[in-house]
């Protein structure tokens, strides 16, 4: 197991093996898997929490070893945290994060994207919500043009909503039958 | 690192995590995101049922008075309000007149500093992009997408005067703010699948054509406008009466608050209006005649500052006792003199109700053939406590009306619903205002 400072050493009785998409095996403490609803359900269904049951390695085809390592780091840190309670009524402007979380998620956006997918796949609500909140807070105070840059959105609006200047079209993302943006301005001056 | 590495590909996420992120966006952020492309707008529209938008929305108002605002308030905790505040963009001509045209604006200074910075970094300033951000959107200019956050409250007179967070976006528009505001209202309505709930208009701030346009865009073309509030103080300007009549003719909401103070000769015939009102609340009621009070087609009638006297009130009570039933269920009438409620029931035996029996209709019926049941009831609200003295009157057909007085001159008539077993009394801010000014 590659995570740092494990509180208790995993033994064959209290752990399972998960296999990442690139074939690397990770020994995972059953206590940690409680944070992942996917793994917890799997363990419950196959009765892997019983000592007399043979535990086959669990393949995680959607998760790379790097992502798994990152996830284990998260699970270890939150090992003794109370169960996550979903609270969606707050806006992105009101989010604050603890220093450890900020450092943990100080990663390139593409890694963040993959980590969010992994958190979604393994159903780790605290990690999933935290990444969603961080992503939402990155939009705060940004104009449409800035959001296009941050989220790499290619516009499919024929005229730019600010100037009326035609902008390159992205036919792949446009939808047939969509109405024109009602805030579209008058045609650009010739 | 490629661009894709630098960007977070939100739209490429599976639907569940993508929508989870979008649900955390503020209304302003959703509007901003929806402007990026038609595709993102369609995504934003799919999550419009989130609590922040439709479910939690309490009001979606347009206020056209000293301020020109679109306001959205949400009822979930913590309570908050989003305001799109429109200001007229200062034009170049007025700047020249003031001799300020040569003074660079903060934005210009920022652009100059950016140019110098990029020169040192050996990069070109993307003028077109900067321009694209700064230029107006059909008369609208969002100078910043960061709302100004302040703690606000609705003050002493509000039903809920607890403090809340107000997030204000300032938008500059060209000469006529009405069309840009309407454009944004339509856009928000479409994006969040919500409809305008109220319009507050000070008609003195606009000319006749503008008032007509406002009524057409924000009242006649709205299907579910719940409240219309009209203000404007013109007691010495009878020339405004025609505009007022035009506005009142065109208003079709069931809840109407008329807070304007017209000239003494102003008159409006409410029979012109097609709809029956639910609430008719008139702040300066000197222009309302006694006949109009008797005929007003509304459930709740609140008339402040009338010219009516005690005798008029007495006549209404007597008419009801003789079998007449008005359209309204509740009427509050602030008289032009002190009201002695006993004089409205004089010459009769009455039964003095104890406070614990005050609300029970059975007790009143049990006292028959005594028709009058006197009460003195403290009414406790967030505005304070007020004592209402009056009578529950039992009519021969079994109907009960509660008449009463508070703050010396505010008379009440409640025609109690036969469906309910308990007496109900409502209240109005005006009585408390009189008390506060005493």
From TrEMBL, chain A:
Keywords: Ubl conjugation pathway. Residues 169-184 have a biased composition (Low complexity). It holds the Pfam family Skp1. Gene3D superfamilies: Potassium Channel Kv1.1, Chain A. SUPFAM superfamilies: POZ domain, Skp1 dimerisation domain-like. It comes from the Eukaryota. Residues 166-190 are annotated as: Disordered. Belongs to the SKP1 family. This is Skp1-related protein.
Automatic annotation (TrEMBL), chain B:
It comes from the Eukaryota. Signal peptide: none annotated. Residues 10-46 form the F-box domain. This is F-box domain-containing protein.
């Amino acid at each position: 197991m590659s995570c740092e400072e494990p509180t208790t050493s995993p033994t064959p009785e209290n752990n399972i093996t998960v296999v990442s998409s690139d074939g690397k095996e990770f020994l995972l403490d059953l206590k940690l898997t409680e944070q992942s609803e996917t793994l917890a359900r799997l363990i419950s269904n196959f009765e892997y929490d019983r000592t007399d049951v043979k535990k086959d390695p669990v393949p995680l085809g959607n998760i790379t070893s790097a992502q798994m390592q990152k996830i284990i780091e998260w699970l270890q840190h939150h090992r003794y945290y109370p169960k996550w309670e979903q609270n969606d009524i707050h806006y992105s402007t009101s989010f604050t994060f603890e220093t450890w979380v900020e450092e943990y998620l100080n990663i390139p956006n593409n890694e963040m994207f993959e980590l969010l997918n992994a958190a979604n796949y393994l159903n780790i609500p605290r990690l999933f919500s935290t990444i969603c909140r961080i992503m939402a807070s990155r939009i705060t105070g940004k104009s449409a043009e800035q959001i296009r840059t941050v989220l790499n959105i290619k516009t499919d609006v024929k005229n730019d909503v600010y100037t009326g200047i035609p902008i390159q079209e992205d036919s792949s993302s446009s939808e047939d039958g969509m109405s024109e943006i009602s805030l579209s301005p008058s045609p650009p001056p010739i | 690192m490629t661009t894709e590495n630098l960007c977070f590909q939100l739209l490429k996420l599976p639907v569940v995590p993508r929508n989870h992120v979008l649900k955390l966006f503020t209304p302003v952020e959703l509007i901003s995101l929806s402007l990026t492309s038609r595709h993102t707008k369609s995504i934003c529209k799919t999550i419009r049922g989130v609590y922040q938008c439709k479910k939690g929305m309490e009001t979606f108002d347009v206020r056209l008075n000293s301020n020109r605002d679109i306001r959205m308030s949400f009822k979930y905790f913590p309570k908050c309000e989003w305001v799109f505040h429109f200001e007229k963009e200062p034009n170049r001509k007025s700047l020249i007149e003031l001799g300020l045209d040569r003074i660079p604006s903060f934005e210009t200074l920022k652009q100059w500093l950016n140019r110098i910075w990029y020169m040192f970094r050996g990069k070109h300033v993307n003028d077109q992009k900067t321009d694209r951000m700064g230029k107006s959107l059909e008369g609208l200019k969002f100078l910043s997408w960061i709302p100004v956050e302040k703690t606000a409250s609705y003050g002493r007179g509000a039903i809920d005067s607890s403090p809340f967070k107000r997030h204000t976006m300032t938008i500059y528009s060209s000469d006529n703010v009405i069309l840009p505001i309407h454009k944004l209202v339509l856009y928000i309505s479409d994006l969040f699948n919500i409809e305008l709930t109220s319009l507050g208009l000070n008609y003195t701030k606009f000319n006749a054509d503008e008032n007509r346009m406002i009524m057409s865009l924000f009242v006649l073309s709205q299907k579910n406008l719940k409240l219309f509030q009209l203000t404007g103080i013109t007691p010495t300007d009878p020339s405004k009466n025609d505009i007022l009549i035009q506005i009142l003719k065109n208003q079709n909401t069931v809840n109407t608050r008329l807070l304007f103070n017209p000239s003494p000769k102003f008159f409006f015939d409410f029979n012109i209006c097609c709809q029956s009102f639910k609430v008719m609340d008139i702040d300066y009621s000197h222009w309302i005649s006694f006949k109009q009070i008797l005929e007003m087609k509304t459930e709740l009638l609140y008339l402040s500052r009338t010219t009516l006297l005690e005798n008029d009130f007495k006549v209404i009570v007597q008419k009801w006792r003789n079998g007449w039933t008005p359209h309204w269920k509740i009427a509050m009438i602030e008289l032009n003199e002190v009201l002695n409620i006993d004089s409205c029931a004089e010459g009769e035996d009455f039964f003095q109700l104890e406070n614990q029996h005050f609300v029970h209709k059975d007790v009143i019926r049990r006292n028959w053939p005594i028709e009058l049941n006197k009460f003195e009831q403290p009414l406790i609200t967030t505005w304070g406590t007020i004592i209402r003295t009056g009578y529950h009157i039992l009519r021969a057909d079994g109907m009960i009306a509660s008449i009463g007085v508070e703050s010396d001159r505010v008379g009440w008539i409640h025609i109690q619903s036969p469906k309910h077993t308990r007496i109900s009394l409502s209240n109005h801010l005006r009585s408390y205002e009189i008390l506060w000014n005493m």
